[in-house]
Amino acid sequence: MKFVRDRVFDRLISLEKGKISSKISQLRKRHKVGQNLTSLCIQNNEEWSVSSTRGKDIYIVKRNVTCSKECTLMCRECNHCLHNFTCTCIDNAVQWNMCKHIHFICSQNLNKINSTILEERLSLDSRITDEEMIICENRKSFAKEAHMWII
What we know:
This is SWIM-type domain-containing protein. By secondary structure, the protein is α+β, with helices and mostly antiparallel strands. It has 3 helices and 6 strands; from the N terminus they run αββββββαα. The chain has a 4-stranded antiparallel sheet. Helix 1 crosses helix 3.
């Protein structure tokens, strides 16, 4: 009896691991497809309208509440999990996958965030350079004044 119980328990564990692994592999495939997606996208607050690749359908992607960082169905590249967004496409609405439209939205927003951070860093670096130049000019003028007092 104990042997049967242990076998059933092991089978349950392997089935659960398989489901998560297959969901993650599907998630990674959809991430790659979403990266290469060239769709028209219109943003309205926390909602995006994404045209289908064939161009005849429009899918609505909505942002939901944030999920915990311990979620097992998280795309590490997008830094979002399955629960952060919903989409009206069949892949997300029926099969409960993080679809290519969600990955597309995440990658577009990530690119915007990264470009904003880069612009802020560049402007900050240019301010530091300007300040350093002012300090150098002040040192030169102090050196000239000190040299005049010595003569």
